[in-house]
Amino acid sequence: MSATPAVDDLLRALAPQVVGIVSRRFGDFDSAEDAVQEALLAATRHWPVDGVPDEPRAWLVTAASRRLVDVWRSDAARRDREARVIAWEVPAYDPVDHDDSLTVLLLCCHPSLTPASAIALTLRAVGGLTTGEIARAFLVPEATMAQRISRAKATIRASREPFRMPSAPDRDARLRSVLHVLYLLFNEGYASTHGHTVQRIDLSREAIRLTRLLVGGVPDHAEAQGLLALMLLLEARSPARSDASGALVPLPEQDRSRWDRPLVAEGLDLLGRAMAHGAVGEYQLQAAIAAVHDRAPTAADTEWEEILTLYGLLEDVTGNPVVTLNRAVAVAMVRGPQAAIEVVDEVEDRLGTTHRWLAVRGQLLEMAGDTAAAAELLDRAAATATNEAEQRHLAERAARLRP
Q: Which helix (H) or strand (E) holds 307?
């Protein structure tokens, strides 16, 4: 969007609500989402000039509805509409005051979609972003992103799922998909896999906004609270994660006075409320690890024994080799680098070609005093990494280890 920040914020908050109203009114999520995009673009042109209308949501619903009617005036569109109305079981009434944001979010994270497609569709239908904005965020051509979104909507249409809140058992399964999608979206913003910057704040902040929306819809869901806590505890470090030149600053070297302490406090409070439910999941465990780091006044004050215990629990829950790799770092801090190298080598068959495995093993070899071997691995890690800031950081570390 290109309107004022206040208008952008309002449109992003209203986008999923309007998609929900128009989808229920016309029985067609696919066409409704396209029409709402047109309405949002019209609002970005008119509202900064004419002023925000007294009933902004009603303005958007009316604009999207008119757009949809115009599209459906052709005979081919009418035949398609009739088939979709039957499939979507349009309700006889239209509770305009009902907020469908959570329903739209659950639909966009349909289990049959790939994570990449679900993220793209979520950013458009729930985040209110244009296809061009999403494409730029993920560094792909706009045509590629348009095809991804189109395929995602076609997959949902083919499922013939009615636009309504899933039943309780289905909702639990769908919530797991939503959490995974939002987690991946945040990670791409917090630690970008491509590009020349350490992080993309716009993506991580949008993930936080959407997760707040989710927590508002399911306020007693412990893992949703845990995921939001994790995001806040990590995002709090953002101001210190790169220096004035944009170079990556590792966690032990960060100036913790620059961390966003209100975000840390909110994250810790959310984590406490999530843990009180008694059912501890992977996002709560990750948040608990982040909390140990964030509570430490300095890197030297970090409670590594506690982190090692938490990583052990997380490894049991997920079976994820990346967790094993992270646990190895904690092992190094508690038991020494040689014990940690043995842990890293346990997952070489699954991660040995990745820059993360190469970087961690290189770091451990450096701690063990084998600087030549460490430099070689760090060089290989730099050559394998896809983020330019990370490439430079790893290459500089390798260069410092050579005589």
A: helix 304-318
